[in-house]
C-alpha cells in the first residue's frame, strides 16, 4: 500500500494477462493502522479520600505497543464534566502509562470517567463511581432455632437485631424462603423486639433424595424509628 494512501473505500481489479482470461473485482475498506486502548482501575467503587490507581494500555492492530505513539493525553472528569486531573503528554513505557488520583474528602459524588486520547482522538474511556460509605446502624443475624430435619417439614429460625453497642433493635422483619430450585416458597412479616422466632412450614411435602437439601432464606429488617434497612441472605441444609 502507498504510505500516503488516505482512509476510504476502494476497489481492486484483477485481470489476466498473456492470453489468460480472468477478471475479478472486489470492494475494499482501507484504514490506517488503528490504535486500541484499555483502562484498568484498582476497583469500581471509591469513597471520598480514597486513591484511584489506574493503568492505560495502548496497542496497535497487531496488539503490540505502537511504534509511532510515545505519549497520550489522559483526563479524569467528575460527574459535572469538570476536568479534575489531566496529563497532556503522558509518556508510554512499552505501551503502558500508570498513575493515580487522590479523591478529595468532599468530592462530587457519582460516576467519574477516565478518557484517553491519541493525536486528539478519543481511544478509550472508562467509568468508576465515587459514593459515601454508609455505616450500618445495627447487626442482623439469622440462624436455625433447631436443627432442621425432614420429619419437621418446616424451618424454625431465630432473628436477632442489635446495635453495635449491644442494645436490641426493634423493627419489622420480612423473611422469604426459597427452595433448592430457587423458587419462592413463602414470605412472612412480623415484629421483632431485639430477638424473634418464626416457623416456616413448607407449602408442599419436602422429600430428601440425598443426605441434605439446600434452601435459601433472605431476611430484611426495617428499624422502627429511622426506617433504616438491613438484609441477610443465607443457605441452610
Automatic annotation (TrEMBL):
One GO molecular-function annotation for this sequence?
endopeptidase inhibitor activity
Superkingdom per UniProt: Eukaryota
UniProtKB keywords: Glycoprotein, Immunity, Signal, Thioester bond
What Pfam families does the record point to? MG2, MG3
Record carries keyword Transmembrane:
no
Q: What does this protein do?
A: Binds covalently through a thioester bond to the pathogen surface resulting in pathogen clearance.
Q: What is known about its subunit structure?
A: Heterodimer of a TEP1-N chain and an TEP1-C chain non-covalently linked. Forms a complex composed of TEP1-N and TEP1-C heterodimer, LRIM1 and APL1C; the interaction stabilizes TEP1-N and TEP1-C heterodimer, prevents its binding to tissues while circulating in the hemolymph and protects the thioester bond from hydrolysis. Mature TEP1 and to a lesser extent full-length TEP1 interact with SPCLIP1; the interaction is induced by microbial infection.
Record carries keyword Disulfide bond: no
Listed under GO biological process in this entry are: immune system process
InterPro entries for the chain: A2M/Complement_sys, MG2, MG3
What residue stretches are annotated with the Macroglobulin domain?
39-130, 132-202
Instruction: Please report the name of this protein according to its UniProt entry.
Output: TEP1-F
How is this protein annotated for GO cellular component?
Answer: extracellular space
Q: Which PANTHER family match?
A: CD109 ANTIGEN, MACROGLOBULIN / COMPLEMENT
Amino acid at each position: 500500500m502507498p504510505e500516503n494512501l488516505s482512509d476510504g473505500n476502494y476497489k481492486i481489479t484483477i485481470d489476466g494477462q498473456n492470453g489468460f482470461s480472468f477478471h475479478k473485482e472486489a470492494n475494499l475498506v482501507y484504514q490506517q493502522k488503528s490504535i486500541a486502548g484499555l483502562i484498568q482501575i484498582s476497583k469500581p467503587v471509591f469513597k471520598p479520600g480514597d486513591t484511584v490507581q489506574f493503568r492505560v494500555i495502548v496497542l496497535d492492530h497487531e496488539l503490540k505497543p505502537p511504534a509511532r505513539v510515545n505519549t497520550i493525553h489522559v483526563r479524569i472528569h467528575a460527574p459535572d464534566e469538570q476536568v479534575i486531573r489531566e496529563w497532556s503528554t503522558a509518556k508510554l513505557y512499552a505501551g503502558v502509562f500508570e498513575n493515580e488520583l487522590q479523591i478529595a474528602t468532599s468530592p462530587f459524588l457519582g460516576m467519574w470517567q477516565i478518557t484517553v486520547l491519541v493525536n486528539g482522538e478519543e481511544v478509550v474511556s472508562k467509568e468508576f463511581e465515587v459514593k459515601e460509605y454508609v455505616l450500618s446502624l445495627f447487626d442482623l443475624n439469622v440462624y436455625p432455632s433447631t436443627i432442621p430435619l425432614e420429619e419437621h417439614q418446616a424451618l424454625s429460625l431465630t432473628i436477632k437485631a442489635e446495635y453495635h453497642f449491644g442494645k436490641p433493635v426493634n423493627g419489622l422483619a420480612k423473611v422469604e424462603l426459597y427452595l433448592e430450585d430457587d423458587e419462592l416458597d413463602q414470605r412472612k412479616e412480623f415484629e421483632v423486639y431485639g430477638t424473634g422466632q418464626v416457623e416456616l412450614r413448607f407449602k408442599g411435602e419436602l422429600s430428601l433424595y440425598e443426605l441434605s437439601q439446600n434452601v435459601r432464606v433472605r431476611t430484611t429488617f426495617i428499624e422502627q424509628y429511622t426506617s433504616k434497612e438491613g438484609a441477610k441472605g443465607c443457605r441452610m441444609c
